[in-house]
């Protein structure tokens, strides 16, 4: 195999060893990889990944680290850090390389008078992860704005642009998630040149704006309000606030098929009473329930299990599992299992984690 130092020199990457991956994840958790190759432009990224794949070297591609839970002992793989971060604006679009900080992309578009991404303000992580996860918030998903995504096919080494219909986009998922078959290098999104937001589809946001659902408002104002709402839930990164040391929403909102919904509603009524109002929303192939609502009604309050715990539910938002500064990955996973199993026992609903686990399991 070609030495990692030679690969770094050939493609202009930066080689480092023994670096804890906790430095690069929003949970501040995770041990080291075999080594790390940081790629600050797309040519370096493509060249490094091709060389490692040709040699059969196990790799972990690391972007913003906002959706990763990495084992305490680290990972037996070479870490390829995606750090290509160019952002190019067009009259009605933005092209962002995979390593661009996502909120920087949103901020640049809003500052340029372009609407569309404002509801996705404050989401941590890199641009390249957004189509993988089909990131969404406040009634808007990346998939609805995607024009195309540039991919590296890791089997053939081919680089090509694909359209959204090739990505199998769904609720917080795509064909790229949980797969190493392709690597996102860049994405291009359609935006609104009039500077107005997407229609306000989320009741909480519309209310905070003093608007009716479906209205459009100036993108800059919507971004300001979204950042405020997210900060109030501990969902805007702040190194001084342990409530933000998280992977965002840890569980996805469950979508129940029509034949399962009555039994779950019966279980909820049996525990909480017949008059309880259960938040329900249309979902793909069923009805979507609120994971946060289920977690709280199963008995897991904000800050659970208590002030002395190394890993806790956020004190602002029960859907976020947080590292209070001294937690291990195993501490966090134990809390995740407790919450998941408690909700299933109470209501018969199994919550699914949103983050990707590396070297560990929930």
Give a short summary of the structure.
The chain is α+β, with helices and mostly antiparallel strands and 362 residues long.
Mean pLDDT: 96
Q: Low-confidence segments, ≥5 residues, pLDDT <50?
A: none
User: Which range best describes the helical content: under 10%, 10-25%, 25-40%, 40-55%, 55-70% or over 70%?
Assistant: 25-40%
* Rg of Cα set: 21 Å
- Compute the number of helices: 9
Apparent shape = globular
Report how far apart the termini are.
Answer: 34 Å
- Total number of strands: 18
Oligomer: single chain
Strand order of the largest sheet: 6-7-12-10-11
Strand content: 15-25%
Q: Let me know the largest β-sheet.
A: 5 strands, antiparallel
Q: What does it look like?
A:
This protein is of the alpha+beta class and 362 residues long. 26% of the residues lie in helices and 20% in strands.
Fill in the keyword field for this structure.
18 strands; 5-stranded antiparallel β-sheet; 362 residues; alpha+beta; 9 helices
């Amino acid at each position: 195999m070609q030495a990692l130092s030679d690969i770094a020199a050939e493609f202009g990457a930066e080689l480092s060893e023994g670096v804890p991956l906790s430095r690069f994840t929003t949970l501040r958790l995770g041990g080291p990889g075999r080594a790390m190759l940081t790629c600050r432009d797309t040519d370096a990224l493509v060249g490094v990944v091709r060389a490692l794949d040709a040699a059969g070297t196990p790799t972990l591609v690391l972007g913003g680290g906002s959706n990763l839970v990495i084992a305490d002992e680290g990972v037996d793989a070479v870490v390829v850090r995606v750090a290509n971060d160019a952002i190019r604006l067009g009259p009605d679009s933005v092209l962002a390389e995979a390593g661009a900080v996502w909120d920087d992309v949103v901020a640049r578009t809003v500052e340029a008078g372009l609407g569309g991404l404002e509801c996705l303000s404050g989401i941590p992580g890199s641009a390249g992860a957004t189509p993988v996860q089909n990131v969404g918030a406040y009634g808007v998903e990346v998939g609805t704005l995607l024009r195309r995504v540039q991919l590296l096919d890791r089997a053939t080494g081919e680089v090509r642009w694909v359209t959204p219909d090739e990505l199998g986009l769904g609720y917080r998922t795509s064909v790229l998630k949980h797969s190493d078959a392709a690597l996102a290098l860049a994405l291009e999104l359609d935006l609104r040149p009039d500077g107005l937001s997407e229609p306000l589809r989320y009741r909480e946001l519309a209310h905070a704006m003093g608007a009716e659902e479906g209205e459009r408002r100036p993108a800059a104002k919507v971004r300001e309000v979204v950042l405020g709402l997210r900060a109030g839930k501990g969902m805007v990164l702040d190194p001084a606030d342990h409530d933000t040391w998280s992977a965002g929403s840890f569980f996805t909102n469950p979508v129940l098929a029509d034949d399962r919904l009555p039994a779950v509603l019966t279980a909820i009524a049996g525990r909480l009473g017949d008059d309880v109002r259960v938040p329900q929303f249309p979902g793909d192939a069923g009805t979507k329930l609120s994971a946060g609502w289920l977690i709280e009604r199963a008995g897991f309050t904000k800050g659970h299990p208590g002030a002395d715990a190394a890993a806790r539910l956020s004190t602002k938002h029960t859907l976020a599992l947080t590292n209070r500064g001294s937690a291990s990955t195993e501490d966090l996973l134990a809390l995740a299992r407790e919450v998941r199993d408690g909700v299933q026992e109470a209501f018969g609903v199994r919550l699914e984690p949103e983050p990707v686990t590396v070297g560990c399991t929930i």
